[in-house]
Amino acid sequence: xxxxxxxxxxxxxxxxxxxxRNIAIAAMEAIDEYARHTKAGSREEFLKELYLVKEMLFxxxxxxxxxxxxxxxxxxxxxENGEKNMEELxxxxxxxxxxxxxxxxxxxxxxxxxxxxxxxxGSVILTHCHSSTVTYMLRRAKEKGKSFEVFCTETxxxxxxxxxxxxxxxAGIRTTLIVDSAxxxxxxxxxxxxxxxxxxxxxxxxxxxxxxxxxxxAAKEARTPFYVVSELLKFDPATMYxxxxxxxxxxxxxxxxxxxxxxLIRNPVFDVTRRDFIHGIICEEGIVSPHLxxxxxxxxxxxxxx
Length: 306
Ligand code: RUB
Prior knowledge:
- With 306 residues, the protein is of the alpha/beta class.
- It has two domains: 2-107, Four Helix Bundle (Hemerythrin (Met), subunit A) (Up-down Bundle), CATH 1.20.120; 115-305, Translation initiation factor eif-2b, domain 2 (Rossmann fold).
- Helix content is 45%, strand content 13%.
- The chain has ten helices and ten strands.
- The protein has helices at residues 2-13, 20-36, 43-58, 65-80, 86-118, 132-143, 161-170, 183-187, 212-221, 293-300, and strands spanning 123-127, 148-153, 174-178, 192-195, 199-200, 206-209, 226-229, 270-273, 280-283, 286-288.
- Helix 2 packs parallel to helix 4 (65-80).
- It binds ribulose-1,5-diphosphate (RUB).
- Ribulose-1,5-diphosphate binds next to helix 2, helix 6 and strand 6.
């Protein structure tokens, strides 16, 4: 069964499963499936196996605190449980992974409600990359009868913006695709920028797809409100205790598959947007200031701090 986990891990590495939320969901399914097929004979052996699963999934992409919080949520339930009976322990993993998924789902619903209210009729919205949380919120606004249009960037080098464009067009939303570098060109037409997040740090900074911080700069210069649409579950508790959020750097071949020899290519896939550029974080507690985010996470999901 470890092969099934390895397969999920490979899919995450290859970006066949991508976006923070989808990665966390896949990790929950993988650990649940693994537990159900375990051959471990004792609680200690079972826990060792779960740590192995965790390490394998943690190693896939380093800027994914939602996945890390999800796996910690499940494993801590087993650690805290004195049960020795294997069948019961497997049930603990199953219940905890299901519970995490339902917290995630509830968060998305609340975000869609708050975020769709913030969208004004007739507005033009810019988004970057593909965030399933953002597109869900936009679809909710459309269902509620709001009239608005969306510009989305193609998002070099992996072109996740095309996924956004396709989803929005299918939802009947007027959508325009632009190259990333055209963001400033159109910014004066834009009423509101909305982006997703991979990580929220203790200082209220947000890590998202490379290019997000440039959009935020352009938005600030044009005095366009810039919102992050994210579950508080993406808060990284390690940043509270001194760690920096690691920024994944991927293969140069994603940027140019056959470059001339001796050419150096760098391919960081996320960047940090400082809190001063963020109007608000649209999250499961409402629309909140990034300055207050740590306290709000502590109130809503105290377990994140371990
Ligand atoms: C995806 C990305 C998304 C966030 C949020 O990057 O940066 O904005 O993950 O997505 P990649 P969601 O394609 O490299 O994983 O709202 O779906 O969690």
